[in-house]
Automatic annotation (TrEMBL), chains A, B, C, D:
It comes from the Bacteria. It comes from Kaistia soli DSM 19436. Pfam families: Cyclase. PANTHER family: CYCLASE, PTHR34861. GO terms for molecular function: arylformamidase activity. This is Kynurenine formamidase. InterPro entries: KFase/CYL, KFase_sf. Residues 1-28 are annotated as: Disordered. One of its GO terms (biological process) is L-tryptophan catabolic process to kynurenine.
Length: 311, 311, 311, 311
């Protein structure tokens, strides 16, 4: 390998939760984070932070999403009097990696070339992908290992800071985040507790359905420096309204998806991608409850679903 | 048709929310239910109320569940230094109708025979299935129309009442529910507010993985009288740890899934099936926050996911 | 209904093979057609008459085609010495209706409105679709009921007649077919035996991969008159290098897919769509063996695969 | 590695057709094999040599087969007069590896451990699996590279030899095959031409639907010696009515699926598994035309379909 991988740095495993940990920053969730989150609730309004799923939504190249309705109806009629019928849906999809979704800790890896010239892929906590992979799901680090997230959330509205949606390839820096804190009156110190969730609004989400064909071509997002800054504050989740949290294309073409590697692999922090953050931004609230319970398909690499904010 | 369908009765539509409503008792959700629910929180402990999803779990006859991992890994390596790789999962399933899931209002219907001898299927709010059906999802009443549920929940522990899991075919009556209220100290009046959620523990859930092959053969559950009693209290959701909320087989073989028809079609109340309620019961808490955000696949007949309780 | 449906005419069922027949013109296949076909073989050259299947090929709106490889590899290593591994593929598709495929007799229907105002769909042999439909396949008239086809084939090269690919919407008439017979030296009488196969080259096939996105927008093809002419000669199969055999859009907008209805429903003749006929045309051979063994998925509405000619 | 792998032996690649060949013994197909096959035809009778595909058929552990019908119907009505409707089917399956199917040359491999301790999987012609694998199909050696097979076939009826179906684990030896030749009057020399197909009847096929749950538990089949004997005669395809052609469990537990490795990897001979051979055996014909045109899904590891014999 040429130079060290700046996204991982030295000694990036074992994790601070030990070599057998599968939950990463999910360990920071607990009754105390729940009780702390409660204090955020003012009006009781709930705002969904995800997009619905439909044929025609953006898909990363190679991925599939289809829904078919078996029969019309799927069952019945049963019961001479009730004449009961029912309907099913049938879905085929890279379910953990479409639309609004949270990545599992086993989703991203780093391939190393060994002295012998052969390669090995390492994922969170130094697990060898070859040890945890099966054709039918991950043996470890699947999204089923993630906890239910119910904790304080903070929105950093970078689109709001610039007053316009950011362009593809725009790198969000620590300084941009500090300017957001300033602008949003969150202060520079103690604005985030360990276990809290940080959501980054870039403006890319507003193009989700309207620019479905080009949505995955590129995006504004976090650069490695911003990810490093956030990691020091130990959030459980970093989310954004783009498709990778990372800025695309990568600032350094030799270091692709550095925020993925730095946040997931080194710090066990979950990424929530493809979020819908405009309604939340329009509410004017920077602090709220973030709630998300992953769909626990064993061995899946991520989870779709509907994260939501409570104001 | 022989006799009137007791599960629906007369004039079961339009709904109380008007002929165009697609949300049913979801309309009872709102800031006030959220704020009321907050008062339930004591310890901040979170308890998942659903099972994970895996090949080998119980499936209703004819349904499919598969997870395949495309490639190993699915993408990469990208970046000469980061050598970034990633993994996807691919799921094929009657996704809205497997394991722990909530039924959409369009899931269940009643087929009527017209004077001419032909049939028509009606669903919630008197919609003709033929008007809302497409091969690629429901035009109306899909689970994407449901709200985020965050509200007070009440557990009625019928298994606890009898001290043993109920047998397949055991009908839970209003009297059983009243005995649970008594035993759990919930009182007979005002124990449920409109918009609250009622969860019924039968003991069938404990057999979910251990008796996967026979799990759908039958189940203890609510009879029509119990559903009628609950409906008068206007819950948003009625859930249970069996596969249909209804007792199976039906008490009256001519009236199949009467609770489905009565609760969903007449009252727009959502059913949450295949729930995991043992941990909640063991907590000793009868009142709690129930939270569930459906996976919003447009036109789907239901949603899997992880409902959870906050204690 | 306004006027009689010219594609079906009066008394279009029962079929000539009786009211219970499910094989239609497949009944014309037998040892004698096989032996007759043998006489066509000269060089022994085999020419595939279908396209391969890949992501990116044309798909009718709403249909899906995906192939995913579970794992890498899917199984093994097994055996301390042999270290045997194996690979699987996983396909999701409207398998009977993509790319080059043969329609089952249950694929197409005609919806009638009854005096009471309700509708019923009739398919081959007057079967009510509601009697044979299930959410998991057709009870009758699935492609598994079709025979193995091995019989004399005749290519009518309409593109060759005009010296250029036909345009979308170009209707092929009986006169065009007779001109092909003349040009190809096949004579006007006795050029087709009952049970033979007729393949029509329009030129649309050459645009299959190169114009995948627009391939289903329209096509040259047979008009009803041409289908009626061919039907009198009792072929087992009529195939073409377009997507419906029929000309698209329909000549008479009130009569959509008339060749489908006339050939499949009235005469039980199988349609082979999306064929690759250029190599065959370039061989200069108008008569050959046509061989096709449908993929016998029970209850499927059609079959993909590789029909082939033996010269 | 402990000892050399007897299934592959030394210098098993490059193939006799050169290091870039992807067709293996398919190269032995050509006009001459077609013309030679013609001479086998006597009565013109066609016998399918495959089973239909249905939910409930045997599946190798981990594999899925489902068919769902989108809508009822899937499309239409279109045309005010024709009121045309149509039906699709939707299939999800390890399509190339279920029921009766032919393996692609890229299906089976041999994992080697390198001095450095790392592993590499080699497939036909010494290709590294890592070079040809993608998550969406094989770059090389997919079943789409196989030719149309139309050639002389020979049935060796080992079940007939013993007068009873063979038991699971029964190894068929060269001597058994010679006894079949004797019994069937095929002679010991020159009974097979290069490019011909050999089909082995074990009796396991008769249990395909009746013993679906246990069908993959084990099977009678060829041992390595029998495969070596057949390979010297250069068939294009070796087929059998069991699920692996190989005897299961393996005679030598350290050498699993040796016929797979020897025939496919060393000799490029295609395996046709799960065949239905009883009707052919009952016809009394040992020589016939074997015809099979693989379903050419690009990059697929095998093909389902309906091979057939012409008598």
């Amino acid at each position: 390998m040429t130079r060290p991988n700046p996204a991982l740095g030295e000694g990036w495993f074992p994790s601070r939760w030990g070599p057998n940990d599968e939950q990463g920053a999910g360990n920071l969730q607990g009754p105390e984070t729940v009780l702390r989150a409660q204090a955020m609730i003012r009006t009781g309004e709930i705002i969904p932070l995800g997009f619905p799923y439909r044929v025609g939504m953006p898909l990363s190249p190679g991925r599939t999403f289809g829904i078919k309705m078996p029969g019309g109806p799927s069952g019945g009629p049963e019961g001479a009097v009730s004449q009961t019928v029912w309907n099913d849906d049938f879905v085929v999809a890279e379910l953990g990696q479409i639309g609004t979704h949270m990545d599992a800790l086993g989703h991203v890896g780093h391939q190393i070339r060994l002295p012998c010239g052969h390669c090995e892929t390492l994922v969170y906590n130094g697990n060898k992908l070859s040890d945890i992979w099966t054709p039918y799901g991950l043996r470890k680090l699947g999204i089923d290992k993630a906890p239910v997230f119910y904790t304080r959330g903070v929105l950093l509205d970078v689109e709001g800071l610039f007053g316009t949606p950011l362009e593809n390839g725009f790198e969000i820096t620590p300084d941009h985040l500090r300017q957001c804190l300033e602008r949003q009156g969150l202060g520079q110190e103690g604005w985030l507790n360990p276990g809290d969730v940080v959501l980054i609004r870039t403006g890319h989400g507003a193009r989700f359905f309207s620019h479905a064909d080009s949505w995955y071509d590129g995006a504004p997002g976090l650069g490695l420096a911003a990810a490093e800054y956030l990691a020091t504050l130990q959030p459980s989740v970093v989310g954004a309204d783009n498709f990778a949290v990372d800025v695309i294309p990568a600032v350094d073409p030799e270091v692709v998806l550095p925020c993925h590697q730095h946040l997931i692999m080194r710090h066990g922090i979950y990424l929530h991608e493809g979020m819908k953050l405009d309604d939340l931004a329009q509410s004017g609230r920077s602090e709220f409850v973030y709630a998300f319970a992953p769909l626990r398909i064993e061995g899946a690499t991520g989870s779709p679903g509907t994260p939501f904010a409570i104001l």
